[in-house]
Amino acid sequence: MSLAVNKRHAEKGAALIIVLGLVAVIAAWAATAAYEDMLSLRRAENVVVSMKSELACLSALALAKVTLKQDARDGSTDSLDDDWAQVSAPFPIDDGLVSGEIVDANRYLNLNDLVDVKGEAVLSMVDVAKRLFAIKNLDTALVDALVDWMDVDDVPFGLGGVEDSGYYDKPYSVKNAHLDRLAELRLIKGFDKDVIDALKDVVTVWPLAKDVVYSKVNVNTVQESVLLAIFPHMSDVDKADVMSNRPYDSVDVLKTALWAQGKEAQAMFSHLSVVSNHFMVRVHAVFGRADRQEEYGLFRDHEKITLLWRERLLWQP
Please, what is the Cα angle at 57 between 54 and 58, to 5 degrees? Predict the structure, then answer.
């Protein structure tokens, strides 16, 4: 009798263990399923907010194009007083926040002007660049290395020139072509982060048209250091006068101030303009965990707007 009872007790104990085991398995499966469901929901949410941030950037780009087209209709000159140049506060949209700005690229020195469309150094522009580097307290020999990166020959340019042999420790050689983006400077010998940071507010990069010898600098928006690099003999009085009397309807009104500086200044006078045709649009969109910054390069020919580039930027706090 006792054996039968013990057997029944053993069977109940085994059944209980099996049930507990099944409960543990089901609980583990349920937890795993819940975790996977949470991940799926998180992924779906991330996709949604990422799409929202990208669409917000593209919407801001479309708005910038409309603004620049309207500006072309409204006037024949460009200045920092125009609507496109005004900085607006970030604005909320749905559950996100979007901010943006339009930057006139003609206020900067185009580094591609240092080498012409034939791949040969333009000495007058090399001199301007070296003066600008000196104003920014940078080694002027860096300009020589920049020229060698873009020119078509294999002869070191100037005292700081660097051809293929200078990149023996790199997995690449000199480009022998114009720059595509400003970020490309980091590939060039001597251009470290500090140098590039110092140049960001005075230089830019955009392609040269085949029928254009050099880029125009808009005197209505030009940076003071760029103006001084172009006209090195300008007095403090003339500089203050030029900057304070902006905007101008024509560059001809500056002849009196600039013509007296000699033939070099007279030759550089043709680099000036009161119209801008290259712009950068920078947009920052935040939707939940999606934090997106993009930059677009635009070329404006009257009311025709052409997208030159689109770049996703790294977020910086």
Answer: 90
Q: Where are the domains of the chain?
A: 109-200
Taking the alpha carbons of 72, 75, 78, 80 in that order, is the dihedral positive or negative?
negative
DSSP annotation of 121: B
d(CA 216, CA 28): 69
Task: Assign domain 109-200 to a CATH class.
Answer: mainly alpha
C-alpha–C-alpha distance, residues 185 and 154, integer Å? 19
In the block, residue with structure tokens 């940071």: 197
Count CB neighbours of 76 within 10 A: 9
pLDDT tens digits, residue range 185-214?
A: 999 999 999 999 999 999 999 887 766 667
CB 219 within 8 A of CB 249: no
- Stated as kind and residue range, the H or E segment containing 292 is strand 290-301
Report CA dihedral (103, 214, 179, 193) to the nearest 10 degrees.
-60
Asked if 95 and 288 count as a contact pair (C-beta separation under 8 A), the reply is yes
Pairing of β 91-93 and β 96-104:
antiparallel
Q: Do strands 96-104 and 278-287 pair parallel, antiparallel, or not at all (unpaired)?
A: antiparallel
Helix (H) or strand (E) holding 103: strand 96-104
**Strand 109-110 to 96-104 pairing:** unpaired
Distance CA 149, CA 175 (A): 5
What are 96-154's pLDDT values in tens digits? Answer: 899 999 999 999 999 999 999 889 999 999 999 999 999 999 999 999 999 999 999 99
Q: Which amino acid is at 242?
A: V
Residue 158 backbone class (left: φ over 0; alpha: ψ -120 to 50; beta: rest): left
Beta carbons of 49 and 290 less than 8 angstroms apart: yes
